[in-house]
Amino acid sequence: MTNSATNLRLKLPIACIILEVIIIILFGTLVQYDDETDAKLWHKEIANGSSNYDNNFYYRYPSFQDVHVMIFIGFGFLMTFLQRYGFSSVGFNFLIAAFALQWATLMQGFVHGMHGGKIHVGIESMINADFCTGSVLISFGAVLGKTSPVQLLVMSVIEVTLFAINEFIVLSVLGAKDAGGSMTIHTFGAYFGLMVARVLYRPNLDKSKHKNCSVYHSDLFAMIGTIYLWMFWPSFNSAVTAHGDDQHRTAMNTYYSLAACTLATYGLSAVVAHDGKLDMVHIQNAALAGGVAVGTAGEMMLTPFGSMIVGFLAGTVSVLGFKFLSPILEQKLKIQDTCGVHNLHGMPGVLGAIVGAVTAALATKDVYGDGLVCLFLTSWESVPSPGFMVKLPLLRKQTDAIKVCIHTTLPGEEGSQEELTTVRTPDEAEKLNA
Amino acid sequence: MTNSATNLRLKLPIACIILEVIIIILFGTLVQYDDETDAKLWHKEIANGSSNYDNNFYYRYPSFQDVHVMIFIGFGFLMTFLQRYGFSSVGFNFLIAAFALQWATLMQGFVHGMHGGKIHVGIESMINADFCTGSVLISFGAVLGKTSPVQLLVMSVIEVTLFAINEFIVLSVLGAKDAGGSMTIHTFGAYFGLMVARVLYRPNLDKSKHKNCSVYHSDLFAMIGTIYLWMFWPSFNSAVTAHGDDQHRTAMNTYYSLAACTLATYGLSAVVAHDGKLDMVHIQNAALAGGVAVGTAGEMMLTPFGSMIVGFLAGTVSVLGFKFLSPILEQKLKIQDTCGVHNLHGMPGVLGAIVGAVTAALATKDVYGDGLVCLFLTSWESVPSPGFMVKLPLLRKQTDAIKVCIHTTLPGEEGSQEELTTVRTPDEAEKLNA
Amino acid sequence: MTNSATNLRLKLPIACIILEVIIIILFGTLVQYDDETDAKLWHKEIANGSSNYDNNFYYRYPSFQDVHVMIFIGFGFLMTFLQRYGFSSVGFNFLIAAFALQWATLMQGFVHGMHGGKIHVGIESMINADFCTGSVLISFGAVLGKTSPVQLLVMSVIEVTLFAINEFIVLSVLGAKDAGGSMTIHTFGAYFGLMVARVLYRPNLDKSKHKNCSVYHSDLFAMIGTIYLWMFWPSFNSAVTAHGDDQHRTAMNTYYSLAACTLATYGLSAVVAHDGKLDMVHIQNAALAGGVAVGTAGEMMLTPFGSMIVGFLAGTVSVLGFKFLSPILEQKLKIQDTCGVHNLHGMPGVLGAIVGAVTAALATKDVYGDGLVCLFLTSWESVPSPGFMVKLPLLRKQTDAIKVCIHTTLPGEEGSQEELTTVRTPDEAEKLNA
User: Membrane-spanning residues where (chains A, B, C) (predicted)?
Assistant: First the structure.
């Protein structure tokens, strides 16, 4: 206890204040408003014929706020189901999220490309920073109760940095498309957290296992977290997809996937329960796996039918994971996955990557029409943002899809693409290609 | 206990999985993306001059998310005020809502019209499915604590089906306008639930009445539900009204109705309380009656003044119902209305229908201008969606209003209507008439 | 107890019902739909070429709902950290907020200008009414546990009236710009509340001090309030700023200020804690000070760097205030500030006013471009709404900035202003100047 008191009294203030001062200095030297938040630049756009109502704020901010609620309320309260760590969960979640979103702005800015030596910030960088924060909070779920706040801050510094590099590799080098982050957010966050949990393995933690039990009110608080994550997952997956049908379709696919996943979770949970009662941990976690599993394919023409199959599978995999895999992870691999992130984010994330690859491989102009261009377009020279085609080297068929896309988007081509160009203002075209 | 365990162990998994498999098969054969979610169709619209920013997603999705929060957080936590059923409330609410929204998509699709044998889905079908789900959850409030999850799923299957048929009769056959669902959602849900409660009447439930008492923390959880319902009711009532002034006005009328209703509730609750203390059940429920009672008339030119009178009356009726009518219902009619849905949804819903009929009867072109067309337009040949005129056969005066509307909308007419046509793109006109 | 029972039984019903009847009568005689909520007037705009999608509803309603959540959930649950007053906090918060928003509509309408003897209402009046309500709830925090609901209603009547007058003086007479209300909402609310707390000083309240202690579940409920306030503060500060870059920039500046403030709060809280533990009261309150302190300057070109410095300072000042100033206030000035509103709203509000004045003084056309016009424009003859330049008489340098603004906006001038005029439709220009 004395140790922990010293830790908080000295190390936590030093960590918080030094990190914040470093961030402020870096923001002062490196960060600038982007075209849509800078008064002068935006009013140049206005002078060139844009309307204030074209500002991206109006098309992204409601999604951003939903994502924000998932990060701070959803993740924060989800983990309160462990009575012993209820307050740590919410309190530390708040601290590391507030830190990680600042650090993520810098790291994602560095890696994803600077503009004349400056990082440009606006609503999309805010959403991406929250996404990266989400990944850190997933890892937090794997180590909850085993770490001090200072260790969590150190973990955040490292994880955010690696997240940005991994995101760059997946989206830019491999050219994969992963708007809802099945791969970049969930799979990365889960396996990073499990790795840390392995390092922090303490055999005698077993003895305090009863502390992991949940109680009545803790379960109700946890349901606040669960339900907010569940409700706003459509916003999460669609937050940075292309405007128009993409955003609309992604939200709807996620909605159906989650609904099917919930039915699968309730059904399976009752089957595997030893006393025939629903296991609250399953409901609080596995019902969300449907959102994870359509993170990659959700913006494609997956159809409600396809989304429901994916959600149903994700819920099944997740409940079975909680029941059969988690004990094995702990006993054989010495990984104490406190909140079961392997079952909620790990396996469903891998499932999501596979579904995304398959769905992308099946993409044809017959199904997508001109939408294929916008959805799968890769601009090799520009800095990538989420919204690119799946180009996993393992999947040969993929490359055909790529060829189709590139062919379709070659500038100066004939056909429907030209029609498209004529009706778009330069500004709109720029946004589509952003 | 053994019985209940068997129920969960066998019946619940079977029910969940069979129902979900049926739904998935029906979605696979019958459900398609609509024009705004299908990549190919939307990009045809883009090629025809639409902008991505015209996608209905941007005008409906924030409302949808508010409605979603009402369904899953609002209804879920509202019912936690009964300590004994706190977790059932949230947990079963989650299950039946996730099921009902899928089933509602199919049933509403069947009844409200197919497109070449297919049900088209998009943001409006999502909102309508959530509305139907709300009706099921109202009924759930009447039978809370008396049903197993399997019984609730069976009830949902039946109620959603009847809801869709009733909605078709009210909106399409009778041609009534009921955007906020005073009639179709609240009145229907309440009386359906009361009917089921009557069937499930168990005289010895009286003995366990003390379990119905609320406690400190349960009351705080219930207030989460109440306040979310209260705050987002303006979004609920305006979610599927016509774009523009209709949506704006509906939200505002609901806001004022609820504020006035809350003052009436606090005032009346203190009057009727036996010990001079505010009754938490009144505050958690009756304060919401103002939202129910402007569900039909809210989109009309009810004025803030009119909305407040309606809200004040609704709060009064609801508190008096809790105090004097509920005991009578239980003793004389053998209806144990666990959450008092008759007081929150039943009577205020009927009040709302009456207010809607009167307000519609008073509608004149002098007050609405060209807005009369959009608000009260009925297209008899096309598939109806909420947003139609009240045509209750009982109200003769009504028909005059209808004649005015139809007259005003006759194609090829002179005057302001023609001016309107000239400034609208075909796409906008289509949306207005949708 | 008998006394309190009588109070509730007689005085509360009388107060609620008489106040509501007065409000309804005043609404009936004085309040009208504005151009965007009135069916006839809006359809005139449509006939003149506007689109339904131009309705201000779509650009303000999501922000309004976020503000609404802050008022009813944020303030309501924030104060539950005092276990003794948990339910009072939420229940009375609900009552006085529902009353204050109606009264504020009238008072702000009177003071800020009538249109032909009528108060016009729409989404902006709704946001402004919620803002005024926020100020009342801040004062409520200072007197929590010392007042009956009837006293709170009386306080609301007086405070709302004075708020409207003060707002008129600050925004219209002094011409200050204060979109997020550092001055008009937070500083006013805090010092009004402290004044009332001084009047209500009861020396023997000390003896029941242990009732002020917080407990486990209360802390979790309070975190719901804190986190909702924290998340939606960007919406609060940007809700009534000008459309386009202003709204976008304000939200982003607030986001960064709050993140930096949170790190400062955790750091400082651990330093000043007597046992090396984080003080939950600090985290629940001081972490929010960053939102208060950028309420005035947030819409200016403060930069993320500047916002973070302001947030860091606000968090520091707030934690130190809780630790060192609150005991002094109670002992020396006999002010029992129950929730510490002086530390959360008082001092950070004053800091925000200073930051706003300095930032406005540094505003140049070089930084803002044509945006300077829109941001700092003052129309002396028209009714002011938030969104005007800081013109505190104390700051001489300010007047230069004013001259620049006025110079830039003179009608019929040469240069970029003319370019601007040519691309704007009359409707857009009107909105910009609104």
Answer: 12-33, 67-87, 94-114, 126-145, 152-174, 180-201, 213-233, 253-273, 285-302, 308-325
